[in-house]
Design brief:
single chain; Arc Repressor Mutant, subunit A
């Protein structure tokens, strides 16, 4: 069993990013990527940096780029190659109207689910 970090035992703080279980991230990563794109079109590395800065930890390219491809296939993001400044070009990703609607709807559902889960997990007694 993994050891707990001191931050996990301190109310009002979060666990270090490296401590988030991967199954938790899989459940919310799509919404988080879409959320990053609400600030405007950007490229994969910058998306990963913003997710890390938000406390989600290091999201590897082997996780992020297939997710971005699925979002593109689903019509939730657009892809555009742009020339690099003195280097190779980059693929930029932008939120579509469908992606914005998906984030709004699924974000609200996630919020309700997270609240329900938090209440269930932290309630001292669960009724039979």
């Amino acid at each position: 069993m993994p050891t707990r970090s001191p931050a996990e035992d301190t109310p009002g703080t979060t666990a270090p990013a490296a401590d988030w279980p991967s199954e938790w991230l899989r459940g919310v990563l799509t919404l988080c990527v879409l959320r990053v794109l609400t600030a405007g079109a950007t490229y994969g590395y910058e998306i990963a940096q913003r997710l890390a800065a938000a406390g989600l930890g290091e999201i590897k390219g082997g996780t992020l780029y297939p997710l971005l491809a699925r979002l593109h296939t689903a019509g939730l993001v657009e892809e555009e190659w742009r020339p690099g400044d003195g280097g190779p070009g980059r693929k930029y990703y932008a939120l579509t109207a469908a992606g914005r609607a998906h984030l709004h709807d699924e974000g609200a559902r996630w919020s309700r689910f997270a609240t329900l889960t938090q209440t269930f997990v932290t309630t001292p007694e669960v009724a039979p």
